[in-house]
Amino acid sequence: MKFDSLWEETFSGPVTDIALAKKSGDMAVASIPDVDTGGKNLLTLISKAGKKIFQIPTPIPVKSLDIADDGSRVLINNYDGKLVAYDRTGAMLWTVDGGCRPWILNSTKKILCYHDDDPKPSYAYDAYDFDGKRVGRFPSKTDVLALKISEDERWFAIALAGGRVLVFGNP
Questions:
Q1: What's the whole-model pTM score?
Q2: Which of 32, 54, 94, 101 lies in the 20 to 30 Å Cα band around 15?
């Protein structure tokens, strides 16, 4: 099977993460500057047609990100341990101390943020509403190795170091 290229975008340095919006087709892209030529850390939102919706510099490089299915929110986790939310215009909505990989739960307008490489874990994940208010967390002294969310977003599973897997419901 052959896939056709729809469009292409070139960034001035390496891309650190991308996320695709399932409904709108938008793509969020985080990039860092080329070490030889300099530049800025960038967060870019690109439409399904390949047009830049916004491109903004970020003071700290983006470690991981996610985008809402409708393209209305972009969540980033940066290397400064902050979880930052942006709207579709590139305006920053809120920032919290996070240090976790964000996953947007579109059906409930929640953010599940798991601590995937925390050297001294205290929590497996934190949950936030779309306004950045923490609405839940799960304590764990064990590293989280993976998190997977069901397609209908009604349940998710985390794998912990040592071979333990926990499954949670998302009401």
A1: 0.91
A2: 94
Angstrom distance (rounded) from CA 171 to CA 164: 23
Q: Which of 54, 1, 60, 63 is nearest to 28 (CA)?
A: 54
Q: What is the pLDDT of residues 113-143, one digit of tens each?
A: 988 766 666 888 999 999 999 999 999 888 8
Burial class (CB in 10 A: 0-12, 13-18, 19+), 132: middle
Q: Please give the distance of CA 4 from its chain centroid, rounded to a whole number.
A: 27
Q: Give the CA distances from residue 87 to residues 4, 75, 90, 102, 171, in Å, rounded to whole numbers and listed in that order.
A: 30, 9, 5, 15, 25
Give the C-alpha separation, 93 to 130, whole Å.
Answer: 9
79 Cβ contact partners less than 8 Å away, ≥ 6 residues apart: 60, 61, 62, 63
Sheet of strand 134-139, all strands in order from the earlier edge strand to the far edge: 101-105, 110-114, 123-129, 134-139
Q: Look-up: residue for tokens 């064990």? A: 142
pLDDT tens digits, residue range 140-155? 888 889 999 999 999 9
Beta bridge mates, 158: 147, 166
Report the helix count and the strand count for the chain, using DSSP H and E.
0, 15
Confidence class of residue 83 from pLDDT cuts 50, 70 and 90? very high
